[in-house]
Amino acid sequence: MIKLRSKKLFKRSSKNSAGVSGSGSGSGGGGSGQQIEWELRPGGMLVQKREGGKGGGEVIIVRVSTGSNWHDISIGASSTFGELKLVVSMVTGLEPREQRLLFRGKEREDDDFLHMVGVKDRDKVLLLEDPALKERKLKAMGTPSPTIIEV
Questions:
Q1: Beta strand pairing status for 2-5 and 35-40?
Q2: Strands 35-40 and 106-107
Q3: CA–CA separation, 58 vs 78, rounded Å?
Q4: CATH number, domain 59-138, options 3.40.50.620, 3.40.50.80, 1.20.120.420, 3.10.20.90
Q5: Which residues contact 36 (CB under 8 A, 6 or more apart)?
Q6: How many Cβ atoms are within 10 Å of 104's Cβ, its own excluded?
Q7: pTM above 0.85?
Q8: From first to last of its 151 residues, what are the pLDDT tens digits of the chain?
Q9: Is residue 111 left, alpha or beta, with left meaning phi > 0 and alpha meaning psi from -120 to 50?
Q10: What residue ranges do the domains of the chain occupy?
Q11: Other CB atoms closer than 10 Å to residue 123's CB: what's the count?
């Protein structure tokens, strides 16, 4: 975490500063200025730290739909789609490499962060089984594939 101090652009008169100093939310005391806490986002952007994010991140509920079924999953807002796949695998029994997660019509990569893509509380994510792996699994189980016989 990076901490920087902000500089005042304008000097306030002593009459107003006594009434305003109590309303400041910074941890720096007195009239020397507020202390601003900064955080580095996964995308590399340096931004002012949010007040609500002090407890290790916000927990959101994501509704994962598998077509006919759906599951509500609690996960951290700053988690990745790969971490979401791990949680989904515990619920559905489908291995993470067999899963394809779609959000807003696009398949998301395992290293994409939920909050960076725009996933919010109670948003829906579509789970599809990878068709190539499904076909390989059927062949491995010895299920005969349909053949065309010409007469």
A1: antiparallel
A2: unpaired
A3: 8
A4: 3.10.20.90
A5: 3, 4, 5, 6, 26, 48, 49
A6: 12
A7: no
A8: 455 455 555 555 555 444 444 444 444 444 556 788 888 877 788 888 766 544 457 899 999 998 888 999 999 999 999 999 999 999 988 899 999 999 999 999 999 999 999 999 999 999 998 777 778 878 888 756 566 767 6
A9: alpha
A10: 2-49, 59-138
A11: 15
* Distance in angstroms (rounded) separating the CA atoms of residues 22 and 29: 9
One-letter amino acid identity for 131?
P
Copy the structure tokens of residue 2.
């990076």
CA 26/CA 40 separation, integer angstroms: 19
Q: Which residue has the tokens 């400041």?
A: 24
- Strand ordering across the sheet containing 99-103: 70-76, 59-65, 124-129, 99-103, 106-107
Residues 131, 121: Cα–Cα separation, whole Å = 29
Locate 40 and state its tokens: 């580095």
